[in-house]
Amino acid sequence: MILPFRPLLERLRALTAGAPWRPRSRPGTTQASSSLPAPEDSALAPIAASPPAPAALGSGAVTGSGRSAASLLAALRARLGRLPSLPGGLRPWITLASLGFVMAALLTNARPLLQLGLDPQGWLWLVLGVGFSLLSVVVNGLAWTVLLRWLGLRPRWEASVTHFMETNLRKFLPGGIWHLAARVQALRRGTGGVELPQSAARSLLVVVLEPLLAAVAALALVGLGGWQGGLGLAALLPLGLLNPRWLEPLLGRLERRKARDLAAELGGELDDPESVALAACATPAPLPGYPWPPLLVELAFVLLRFAGFACCVWAFDLQLSLPWTTWLSGFALAWTVGLVVPGAPGGLGVFEAVLLLRLGGGLAAAPLLAVALSYRLVATLGDVLASLLADLDGRLARGGPGLPSQ
Questions:
Q1: How far is CA 373 from the centre of its chain?
Q2: Where do runs of H (alpha helix) occur along 195-243?
Q3: What mean pLDDT value characterizes the chain?
Q4: CB 3.0-4.6 Å disulfide test: which of 14, 80, 140, 360 passes with 301?
């Protein structure tokens, strides 16, 4: 009599003895070939070939894995370092890519754009947008002067605002740093609205801090658009970076980078490029505190820029297509990216591309592109008028040709 559990006992005895177990052949069947592994052998093989438990690895294995990771990162850096650099650097390629994106959008939406038209009321909205843009440049110059006073440089208000407006138009020149170079030279000479000549390090501090405050103020407005997948909260974090404890190290790094840019690209245009380059190694002076006064004026400047943008929205009757908080959030984000991306003169192409990507999901591409392009025209006209008015004011003050002296 064969017990039903006898095969199980035979298998356990074979495993204990260490000999491979083979199933017993039934009557009428042939024995399986010895060259083929038994199912039990193949099932036990992965267990036998598996690595030891983590507790048995020891510190040597962990050190080896750390070394392998470090060697992998070193090899990756070496491979990336051997990649050919882009001709002319990264900056012009960013501008070309942004302009290419906008041109592709123009070609794709050429027919809908041609069908859009402006009535007389729409043209009046655009003229009003030019006025807001002109006023925003004046307020931006006022923010520059408030920053000079906050840093203890004792500016002359009218002369400082006028000089800022005169140099503002140079941001559209290739490279996007000519307006900064003009302000650095004016501060070092003691002209441009300051009473005494300033050191290269102090001049760089003002030039770097002003656009940083404008970017932080604009990002704070992004949070008015709601949660936005966490973007609304992340946009408020830069406000904490303005604490002197965090701002001073950040300004040191930004000053060193800006000094290298000015000395490398504009060495022939600066009075003393060596001192500007040495200013990159200077220890930044302590800040007087949290920059509330210039930050609030920069916030007013960004809001006036948005007022010019809102006039373009009204010109094409799109004020009801999206909530105004969404318009403001999208504009602030696009304006900030256009400000901080290097190599884009005046944010040209970058602003339009980011605006299309940010608000394109809730609005048709053609009217949104029309708003973006009309705002570019309105803002540029405002900058040009501000520069012309500042130049005219300077001629009046100096008693220029054909103008009576005051």
A1: 21
A2: 200-222, 231-234, 238-241
A3: 80
A4: 140
